[in-house]
Amino acid sequence: MKNLNPTRFFTTVVLLLLLGITMNAQEDQVPYYEIPDYPADYGPGNVAARMIDGLGFRFHWASKDLRQEDLDYKPSEDSRTVMETLHHIYAMSGMIKNAPLGKANELPEDYKNWPYEKLRRKTLENLQKASQLMAGKQAEDFENFRIVFQGREDQKGFPYWNMINGMLSDCIYHTGQITMLRRASGNPIAPNLSMFNGRLRTK
């Protein structure tokens, strides 16, 4: 066995450590690795924000490290693939973000051509922004939170109630589908997740 060069060995170890730190830093830049701390009170805006945070945490882990075979997977010919489900969730995440702004919903024309990593990041950023917009808001503020659909000639608006039973609930539902489908395609989510605490279990 040849003697190891101490300098080369040390350099290799340092590079591997730096690579690990860089990868962790990149992951930390994607929202909802962990659920944020509790809001200050149970005001209506904070409750809505916490619901969005719960969705964000679940989506982060349901959509993390998907392989191409996972993205292409669908249980039957007439069902969505995982990638098509990600497109659907992204579209709704924009609506969740736009509601507290009263902004009409318009999708980027090319979002279905985005790579998976960009689609995932943009979805999580939309949810994080939506939570920030809702935080601290009071009941009277919700009167101005509208789901606005832009038609060719006019706009149609709906109250935030429709967001709760509509897009928010739908995104949670479809995130659960991704969790199930990726297990079926042989790539289950991290086993040490605590959805209750919004953290990775350390033991």
Radius of gyration, whole Å: 20 Å
- Helix-strand string: HHHHEHEEHEE
For the largest beta-sheet, the strand count, sense and barrel status come to: 3 strands, mixed
Shape: globular
Structural class: mainly alpha
> How many helices does DSSP assign?
6
Ranges where pLDDT stays below 50 over 5 or more residues in a row are: 18-26
Helical residues, percent: 40-55%
DSSP, total strands: 5
Side-by-side strand order of the widest sheet: 1-2-3
**Which band does the percent of strand residues land in?**
5-15%
Separation of the first and last Cα atoms: 39 Å
Look at the structure and give the mean pLDDT.
Answer: 88
Describe this structure in words.
Helix 2 (44-62) runs antiparallel to helix 5 (116-134), helix 4 (82-98) packs parallel to helix 5 (116-134) and helix 4 (82-98) runs antiparallel to helix 6 (160-184). The chain has 203 residues and is mainly alpha-helical. The protein has a three-stranded mixed sheet with strand order 1-2-3. Mean pLDDT is 88; it is low at 18-26. The protein is globular. 53% of the residues lie in helices and 8% in strands. The longest helix is centred in the last third of the chain and has 25 residues, at 160-184.
